[in-house]
Amino acid sequence: MAPADGLAEQVRAGSCDHGIKRRQLYLTQEQMESVAYGLWLHRMTGSAAEANRFGREYGVVHGPATAGNEGAPAVDGLPSAAGAAAQGGAGVSGRG
Fold first, then answer.
1. b/e per residue 21-39 (b: at least 16 CB within 10 A)
2. pTM metric for this prediction
3. Distance of CA 86 to the CA centre of its chain
4. pLDDT tens per residue, range 55-69
5. Could you read off the pLDDT of 19-44 as tens digits, one per residue?
6. Exposure of 40 by Cβ count < 10 A (0-12 exposed, 13-18 middle, 19+ buried)?
7. Helix-then-strand count for the chain, H and E
């Protein structure tokens, strides 16, 4: 699965607050789901911390086994990406 359109550009354009060592990104729902997929792949290599935190903070997780169809993002008891965005959660701080 290729990264969502424009994701690389958004990552490069993100601002960094060196004082708190955090990067701030503004992503679309599709881009957030792409990030969740990348973190899921990273989890499969043995590091789940990033994927767990992303799911907890932004409500977007990837899990083919729970999604009902292969490759679709799953929402495991968390608000949907659209719901998070509607609540002002469209900005991704990059904390973690």
1. eeeebebbbebbbbbbbbb
2. 0.54
3. 16
4. 888 888 887 664 444
5. 888 888 889 999 999 999 988 888 88
6. buried
7. 5, 5
